[in-house]
Structure formats: structure tokens, C-alpha cells
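[Meeting: bench + compute handoff]

Bench side (C.D.) handed over the final construct sequence. Compute side (W.E.) agreed to return the predicted structure before the next meeting so the bench team could plan truncations. Sequence as handed over:
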Amino acid sequence: MCHGCNRRQFLESAALGGMLAAGSALVAAGEPDRLAKPAPAAPQGPVTIHKLYVGFAGTAWPKPEFDVKAEVARFEAALALAEKKLGNVRLVGGEIVQTPAQAAAAVARVKQADGVLLVHLSLGTGHLMQQIVEAGRPTVIFSQPFSGHEWMFVPAWQKAGKKVVLLATSDYGDLARGLALLRVPGLMQRTRLILIGHAAGTPAAQSAEQVRKRLGTEVVRIGVDRMVQVHKAVDAKAAQAEADRWIREAKKVVEPTPAEILKSARTYLVMKRLLEEERAQAITIQCLGGMPIDVLGYPCLGFTRLNDEGLVGACEADMDSTLTMLAFGYAFGLPGFITDPLFDTAKNAVIHAHCCSPTKMDGPASKSCPYLIRTHRDDNRGASLEVEMRVGQAITCAKLANLDTMLISTGKIIELTDFDDRGCRTQITTEVANARQMLDRWGAGVLGTDMMTLLHRVVFYGDHVQAMRHLAVLMGWKVVEEA
């Protein structure tokens, strides 16, 4: 154990040793535009989702004179708009299933898709729906009121291990939200993730083989020497333009010199080049103790820019947090803020702090939060950001552990922490349901004893707990609430 050392020295020593109204109506009011171009930037090729309609006329519900074709036409119009809005989803199929033979034929086709959207139209269809669910593909069932009572069977199918989610709602906007969740398994399978340095996190997440086996994501290992080589070859004018942009858009530059900011700007361009060359959507680096800071500077500014652009840049080679950011980005179009949480039970709060944060917390198309350019607080070197997030904003705090358990909680930003300029530069104080209980439950017994793995969480704007419960079913994860 490293007694009397700061956090950086400790880590270095450890390291080195939906949106739509019914029919042809407009996009539902208030639905965020981020779903149009989800973060992170989509891998090659869209996700294919097979749509099916299950129902017939002549039943008591919705009504005996129910017009199946007219109902399907309304859904088709809404789904066409959703497909266009989402951008990286390709809808296929559209068959009306009314017999076991038709269901069997549909099952053969849906096995070629990444997921299934099943629209429940009428009573008396449970056996048909079950045939489709038994195909084993990630499935979302949309069941508006008075379509029938088949919603009751879904919990039993889930208990049997089927990746099926029920959206029992009159809101056609949930069609697009359901599609957004359905795309996540397919996008994760198409994702390439660059790892530079030694992987950190839970044992399963550190294993490239396990990541590929469980999520389909390919981990690409790159040596830091390649970073240095690319850094030397970066176009000087492009690097200066990037540095000038950081300075121009900042509220203030506090400690770093222009030369230090330029060094970090070059490192952003290095990471961007590596992502392009490797056709990757995420990069994580062993930045504490694993890269030559005197040559490359800290990658904090570069991580921020990547996250603002809809990619994933994650610090400290934290594989759990990187994968969490990918999943949330694909599902909700949001970047994540990796944090070192700490508790203030006097305020019933968790303080989230780190030296690397996105500025576009509402998504790539949103306005940037104000920020100051500061040094990296652990050693007062390099360049990082002090980002001023939105007070009053609801947040979700999450971490995918061991590739199979999503730790999650919610809170609300009540202040930008101001405590004698201590700790990492970007800080938010978040009120939670029960800080004392959350402290007692921290890690839920699934994170082992490694400090960074126990510590890190990722903060996202918005309350996504229910949606994450749905996504967990589609991904085969467990959800554990820490609060």
C-alpha cells in the first residue's frame, strides 16, 4: 500500500506494479433531437430491426369491427418517421401475423435481424407472440391500451430468460424510444474500442476475449509508442487551430500556458486519427502512469472533445466506464462524465468530481456548458477543464460491472461544489434519495477491492433508470440500484 502518497502517485504505483404522435402526426413535443444522431458515432452499417404486427379483427378487444389494415397503416407512418429520425436503424418486415404458420415463417426471418419490434394489435394473440419471442432475438413489444390482455405474459417470458421488453403505453413516442434501446445490442456488436496501456476495471471487462464474447465489442490494443509517433506527425496548423478554439471558447484560462494547451490539442488530434485509422468508436488510455505526460500532455481536453462529438474518450483505461458510456450513448445520445464520487451526508448528497468532463452534456447537438481551462489538479500540470454543469438537472449515475451488472442511481445537481479548491477540477453536488444508505451499499458487492474500480461511476443528464431496466433485459444484464 502507498502510505502518504497522493491519488495520482497511488494510481501510478499501482499501474506500474421514442418521439412520434399517432399516424402521420408530428414528432411528439419535447422529445430531444439527440435521438436523431445518437452518441457515440454509429459503427459501420445500420442496425436491422424486424417489425411485426400481431392481431386480427372480430375479437372483443379492441372491438369486433377493428380494422387491422388501417391500424397497421397508422403505425407504418409513425415508424417511418422514427426510422428517419433515428438514422442508424433500418426497419424491415412489416408482416401481419394471424396464424401459427405465419408466426413460424416470421420466426425464420427475424433470426436474421438485430432485434424485433412486435406491435400487439388485438386479443387472442398470446400464443403467436410467444412463438416470436421464443426466437430469442432482443424484442420490444408495443401494446397500446385496449389491444388485449397479453401484456400479462411478458413477466413470465422474462423470467424464462427471454430478452423481451413490454411498452404498455398510449404514447407513440415510445415507439422511437423502444427502437433506440433495440439498436444497442447490435451497435455494441459492431463497435471497436481502442485500449492504450494496461486495462483497468472488473476482471471480465479487462479481458478482450470476454468483452467480445459477451457484448460483441472488439478491443483493439495500441502501444503508447504509436501515440507518440502520430503526435510528432500532427499538422501544426491544425493543432494550433484546435488550441485557439479551446482558448477562444473558454470563460477563462487560469493556470495552463498556451504551449500546454497546444500540446493537449495535438493529443486530441492524435486520438481522433487513431479512431479513424482503426474504425473505432471509443478510446481509453492508461493516462495516469501509462503515458509520457511531458511529451503528450494529459488527454483530458481530447477526451472532452471526443465525447462532445459523439464518440467516447475515457480516462485511466477504465473498461467498465468506457463500456457504460458506449451503452448510454447508443441508447440515449448522451455523453458521460466519469467521476470520483465522494459523500456529504450533511447535505444528503454525493459529490462527483474529475478533471475530464464533456461540455455538451445534453448531446452532440447541444450547447456547451461554460468552462475554465485549468491544470490537472492531482499535480497542477497540463491542461484540463472545470466544466460548469446545470444546477437543478436530474442525473443518472451508472456503471456496468463485470459485463453483466448495471449499478445505477439517480440524483439532482444542487450546486457546483466549492470547497477550498480541493479535488478534481469539475465538481457537482448531487442530492440523492438516501446518501447514508447509498454509502453503505456502495458497489453492491460486485466490484472487488481495487480502488479505481470501486470508485469510478459515470454521470449522465436525465433520469434513465426505467429505460435502463428495459435495456438490461435486452442485453441480458442485471440492474442493481445503489441508492
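W.E. noted at the follow-up: The chain has two domains: 34-188, 191-481. C.D. will use this when planning the next construct.
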